[in-house]
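Hi X.,

You mentioned you wanted examples for the new student's onboarding notes, showing what a folding record looks like when two proteins sit in one file. Here is a clean example. The first protein comes first, with its sequence line followed by its structure tokens.
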Amino acid sequence: MTKRILNVVTNVGHDDDPSHPTGLWLSELTHSWHVFEEHGFEQAIVSPAGGPTPLEPRSLKFPNYDQTAKAWRADPARMALLANTYAPEDIDSADYDAIYFTGGHAVMYDFPGSAGLQRITREIYERGGIVASVCHGYCGLLNTELSNSTHLVSGRRLTGFAWREEVLARVDKLVPYNAEAEIKKRGARYEKATLPFVPYAVVDGNLVTGQNPTSAKKTAKAVAARL
């Protein structure tokens, strides 16, 4: 049976200040998509509201704008996937073996409160499927509870964009909350690389997480290995 991956992207195009655009960090999708594609996995894209996902402008500049991202933007069929994402109510979780949350600061706004994404994540996880995230994508796991009302991340090893990286990227005054601190409040055993912005991924059973944009490929390879 061909494995199927559900990629999650944002619908948010700016932060609290409308003059500060944000959106999907494109390479976090394209790097993982490429890895999954190489393994012959089928893929789909969902967002909290369905419909279009905007792109984070900073992800379209050197050094983040690499060949996979450029190729995606040059492909009308691929760009159409981002213009017409599924809504959670369109998704039957039984059709997917893994869910993969992409990042970009935008996800801090619409991932945590999506009951639809929480449902899909819980169902995939409790069925033994893989739950994965990269960078700020772990914000999609902040409020996801299991059927026994405990947080999915409670007691689990994971990683995601570190507060130190927010400070070094000079966005600590712009983000709506400290994601690292919030995930720890849910009982997660948060880990990070010794150095900022280097590839780092954590595998804890069927929970697979990556720390930052450079970790997308490493995270996807870990997901593929689990599948």
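Then the second protein repeats the pattern, sequence line and then tokens:
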Amino acid sequence: MKKPNVDDYLQEGIYGSRQTKPAERKRYLGTLRERVVLVLTKGQVMQKAGLNELSQAMKEYKDAKLLLNGKVSYRFRKPYRKVADQNRIRHTTVSNQDAETDLGAILTVDYAIEKDEVELKTPEKSESESSKEGGLTGFIKSLFKPVK
């Protein structure tokens, strides 16, 4: 191991101490993938999806911590904070302006658990449901719908 020199001390002072797996930490709101119990995307958080699954995971892992993405509006984070309070789980809002992630909520622990499936699977919409959608997407799909 090399001996630290003045440049190493300056770099640490400017940028902070070196972290392992920085890309993984940016994606998972500051934690590592091996510590994640359950992950919800921003879209799932905005749709209030996974509240029951999150509550069950909190009951299983009493020492867990809930990380909420600060880029998601407070009104969407509020139900998740409430579930965490009901289960006596600590929660933190992470607002890292440098990191871009599609994740909205992460239930994590302080030790490695190595779960294979951590992402919540949401049922896919059928084609008939998606064509009934309102807005521009539904309108465009209805324009190109075959005539019977």
